[in-house]
Design brief:
It is built from 13 helices and ten strands. With 332 residues, the chain is α/β, with parallel strands linked by helices. It folds into two domains: 270 residues, NADP-dependent oxidoreductase domain (TIM Barrel, Alpha-Beta Barrel); 39 residues. The protein has an eight-stranded parallel sheet with strand order 9-8-7-6-5-4-3-10. The protein has a two-stranded antiparallel sheet with strand order 1-2. Helix 1 links the parallel strand 3 and strand 4. Helix 2 packs across helix 4 and helix 6 packs parallel to helix 7. The protein is globular and about 55 Å long.
């Protein structure tokens, strides 16, 4: 296992180069197994844990944070050992809460940020969050209001850093410029979908992250399982379903070239897909969402894989990106 630690963009905090995503906790992964995964992550050197207030698919929004909170409550230095990240923006319609104006709708109002941060901290059984992320852009809310809410939370010691997720390049620039105007640090990281199959962030999001010294945290690094040996699993009868089958059939030739390359390299496709992300210096930590300890350990092995220039060039042929960064990708 070769999990290492690096700075989050050009900021001082050091995090593992793999981030433990927890979206499956309480849904595909039982609480008992989630505890095992989190304990094993610490043993492997993974100290970066990511969640969101809305996680809890198949149950109540917030239930994933509650699972993490019960794990942290066991003590043993667990809270001190991790860089804890959660998110705000989405709809929170819990059965145990009364309807509140402006609170359940998606957005980034100061009212919502205050209430939802306090609720997240209660569920996490923590007094602060290390990285508080905007889960989506809210272009209808003034940046003065949003940054003021984050400033207050920072002064209260409830959050340390602010990050974004699913922002366009120009949203990142606007947020950082507005923070600079206020004399504040601004965004330290961006979570975006990024994998071999979906490389659109290379146009403008990655250049923006590099310019503002932000770390990039790719989510869906295996493209929903598409890069994790989908063809082999489909043909072997281990994964079916009309939507998945149609996707595999439509890209059978591409998947065959991909999986043949991985066999030549001697590594499982999922591990090679993670290794490809890790070769990009702007990427701080792909977010992996293991359902089992075995999947977590597989992700950790990916950190030891080195891809040479020839392999990277072959991957560019199999999975061509947008042609580079804007505007060079589409102009002179």
């Amino acid at each position: 296992m070769s999990v290492t630690h690096k700075r989050l963009g050009n900021h001082g905090v050091r995090v593992s180069n793999l981030c433990l995503g927890t979206m499956n906790f309480g849904w595909h992964t039982s609480e008992k197994d989630a505890f095992r995964i989190m304990d094993r992550a610490l043993e492997l050197g993974i100290n970066f844990f990511d969640t969101a207030d809305v996680y809890g698919w198949g149950g109540e929004p917030g239930s994933t944070e509650e699972i993490i909170g019960r794990w942290l409550a066991q003590g043993g230095g667990r809270r001190e050992a991790i860089v804890l990240a959660t998110k705000v923006y989405g709809t929170m319609k819990r059965q145990d809460a009364r309807p509140e104006p402006n609170s359940h709708a998606g957005g980034l109002s100061a009212y919502k940020i205050r209430k939802h941060l306090d609720a997240s901290l209660a569920r996490l059984q923590a007094d602060h969050v290390d990285l508080y992320q905007m889960h989506h852009i809210d272009r209808d809310c003034p940046w003065d209001e949003t940054w003021q809410a984050f400033d207050v939370a920072t002064q209260q010691g409830k959050i340390t850093y602010v990050g974004s997720s699913n922002f366009a390049g120009w949203d990142i620039a606007t947020a950082c410029q507005e923070a600079a105007r206020r004399g504040r640090m601004g965004l330290v990281s961006e979570q975006s979908i990024y994998n071999l199959e979906n490389r659109m962030v290379e146009l403008e999001v990655i250049p923006a992250c590099r310019h503002y010294g932000m770390g990039l945290l790719p989510w869906s690094p295996l493209a929903g399982g598409f890069l994790g040996g989908a063809l082999e699993k489909h043909d072997g009868g281990r994964r079916k379903g009309d939507e998945f089958a149609d996707r595999v059939q439509s890209k059978r030739d591409q998947l065959k070239r991909w999986e043949d390359l991985c066999r030549r390299l001697g590594h499982p496709p999922g591990e090679v897909a993670l290794a490809w992300l890790l070769h990009n210096p702007v990427v701080t930590a792909p977010i992996v969402g293991p359902r089992t300890v075995a999947q977590l350990e597989s992700a950790a092995r990916a950190a030891a894989i080195e891809l040479d220039r020839e392999t990277l060039a072959e991957l560019d042929v199999i999975f061509p990106g947008p042609g580079g960064e804007a505007p060079g990708a589409y102009a002179w």
